[in-house]
Amino acid sequence: MKTIALRFADNYAPADGTIKLHEDVINEYGYVWYGKFGNSLSQKNIDMLLEMKEKRFLLIKSGGQERYWAHFEDIKKEGINFEAIPKYYRDDKERVKCWFKITKFEKADPKVMSKCFVSSNGSLLSNTSKYSMSPYFVIDYKEEENE
Asked: What is the helix, strand, coil percentage profile of the chain, to 5?
């Protein structure tokens, strides 16, 4: 499965953490708009993600071991419901260049990084992500047949 791996950090979020605060919004609205700060994804990558049968991408916690699959319905660059984002970054919403409409976060298998390969060079995501400052990677996820 081709998708993306996107980094996240809790250093910007309140003590409850990024995932928990986004899940609270899902519990209220049925979805949450998850914002990617900085540059947007390319339109090519957005189109690739939106064409997926099973729409999900991998969230990698910077400096930590937490990994989550984010199941999404849509991706937008503007025109979202700002009530459906966590309060802690509503004041900074102008810095967000890409929004993912997420319906569920699923804790990923602890070995997920050993099943992800960077599409551009075939290298293992766990190795590449250690030495790269890139905020996201296009990846090939090699799910085992018996999962």
From this structure: 25, 35, 40
Q: What is the pLDDT of residues 10-24, one digit of tens each?
A: 777 777 889 999 999
**94 domain-assigned:** yes
* pTM of the model as a whole: 0.92
DSSP letter for 121, please: T
Tell me, yes or no, whether 83 lies in a domain: yes
CATH number of 49's domain: 3.10.590
Residue bearing tokens 């250690």? 130
CB 99 within 8 A of CB 34: yes
Domain span at 98: 2-140
In a domain, 123, yes or no: yes
Cα separation, 112 vs 125, in Å, equals 10
**Main-chain dihedrals φ then ψ at residue 53, nearest 5 degrees:** -70, -50
Give domain status of residue 146, yes or no. Answer: no
